[in-house]
Amino acid sequence: MSQEEVEAILGGPPGDYTNWPHPRRIKQFIALASQANDDGIVERFWLGEEGVLKVIFDPRARFISAEFFRNDSLGTGSYESRNERFVKWLRELPTRFTH
User: Fold this and answer.
1) Fewest beta carbons less than 10 Å away: which of 14, 32, 34, 49?
2) Does the global pTM surpass 0.90?
3) Do 59 and 5 form a contact (C-beta atoms < 8 A)?
4) H or E element, residue 51
5) Rounded to whole angstroms, how far apart are CA atoms 8 and 60?
6) Per-residue pLDDT of the chain (99 residues; tens, 9 = 90+)
7) Half-sphere exposure of 82 (CA within 13 A, CB side)
8) Residue 49 backbone class (left: φ over 0; alpha: ψ -120 to 50; beta: rest)
9) Which helix (H) or strand (E) covers residue 4, if one does?
């Protein structure tokens, strides 16, 4: 499978598809890891709300493997879905008006 086919399946090129800021160390790691090694093997990363997908390609940009890391396993804290964050916001709404 080519990188273009992987991008078509995932809906876009490698990148940050989240709505939250990342610790600098994660962005630096991704920038460094996205460079080809001496064998021409390249790791590409898709950051999403639930975690990071790492896809490894050979020198011809053909798929080798993929691995998914949940956000909580990256040290970014426990994951809250968009729905969970919205419900939490609704519960806190009355306190926003009393202060």
Assistant:
1) 32
2) no
3) no
4) strand 51-57
5) 17
6) 999 999 999 999 998 888 766 666 566 666 666 666 778 898 999 888 778 889 999 999 999 999 988 776 555 555 566 666 677 777 776 666 665
7) 5
8) alpha
9) helix 3-10
